[in-house]
Amino acid sequence: MYFRYDRKKAMVFKDDLLSLYFTSKRIYTKELTPQDILDYVYSLSKSIVKWYKINCPNDTSSSEKEKIGLIKLNRVGIGSFRPLLMAAYLKNNGNIEMLLSACERFRFLVSHLTDRRSNTADSHFYNLAHTYYCSKDMDINALIADVNDKTDRWFNFDIFVSSCIDRYKKNSGFYSWKGTRYFLFEYERYLQMASCDKTIKCNWDDFVRNQKEITSIEHIYPQTPTDTYWTSRFIADSDKVLVNSLGNLLLLSIGKNIQEQNYSFDKKKNTTRENGKITHHGYDSGSYSELEVVQTFNEWTPESIINRGRRLLNFLIENWKINVVLTEENINKILNIHPKTAKISHPIMVDVADEIEVDEDEL
Question: How far apart are CA 363 and CA 88, in angstroms?
Fold first, then answer.
């Protein structure tokens, strides 16, 4: 941020600091003054406070919206935005929440939906951090516009559709998508805010922790559908093409043993107790996502998976402000809908934004 970034040269900052800038020769020639050294040290002392704030938002006294923005960005992968945000905090000229939102949107759409490399546009944002820090005229709105412009440039919805098709060909679908956990967690957070309930039913650290033989994302229609509940309702879906469709994946508030995934939908829905103790945590006592499934669907059929998938796709478009019109052709590709396996007589087109009114600023 303070000097420059050069992608062509590894560890360029070491040369800048110790071989080019802070050298005894430059002191001798009076190119480097004590004030230059003091200015750099003073910048370090201010920057480290902002650096800690960016990386450990829970330990700071930021506003709630700002803290949420930082937390979300760290979850989705903050990457090259650290120097840019540090420069923005140091200059402190407002709209930091909008900048955080723009950065999170870039990371999710470009790195997760479009599956581009995690270092996409890194050199640009590193250099932008330096330019902004050194500029007296450039304001934070220019940063926001720049990030949004790069998002529009690098994001490609068609690539997302193609990657969905490729994952289904590998029989993994959305279950193997690197953005699944973040997406389902954001949907859970959305449902929580819509319910006006401050109770957090799923902790991010617990949700992303890999535990042997424990699952935190459940296939509602199981990968091994041996129960007669499934074999009687998914007769046409002999190839299980809907198992890894987006609408069939559910965020759980409490991790469950893998064998529990094979239960019937009726058993999955209902919490069971013996002698006053819970022996099975059902959806009816689970996350907001689980509760939504219980309250919306009496049965779990191919039609249910597709309808919930549409609901989640609408949330995706609305929440990350994706400028695209979902065609039936693309919906079929994204959700892996095939005529012979999923014939729907009365499809439900759910517009999440119309169904639940939430203050957009809270998102």
Answer: 21
What phi, psi does 141 have (nearest 5°)?
Answer: -65, -30
Instruction: Give me the sign of the Cα torsion angle 77, 79, 80, 86.
Output: positive
**Could you give the CA distance from residue 151 to residue 109 in angstroms, rounded to a whole number?**
7
Strands 214-219 and 249-257: antiparallel
Q: Give the chain's count of helices (H) and strands (E).
A: 17, 4
Q: Which two tokens stand for residue 101?
A: 């939102």
The radius of gyration computed from the CA coordinates of the chain, to the nearest angstrom, equals 25
Q: Are 361 and 65 in contact (CB under 8 A)?
A: yes
Cα 362 to its chain centre, rounded Å, is 16
How does DSSP classify residue 17? I
pLDDT, tens digit, 9 for 90 and up, residues 200-248:
898 888 887 766 556 789 999 999 898 999 999 998 777 789 999 999 9
Sign (positive/negative) of CA torsion 144, 148, 153, 155? positive
291 in helix, strand or coil? Answer: helix
pTM for the complete prediction? Answer: 0.87
Residue 13 CB neighbour total at 10 angstroms: 14
Decide if 47 contacts 84 (C-beta within 8 A): no
Question: What residue ranges in 157-281 does DSSP mark as E strands?
Answer: 214-219, 249-257, 272-274, 277-280
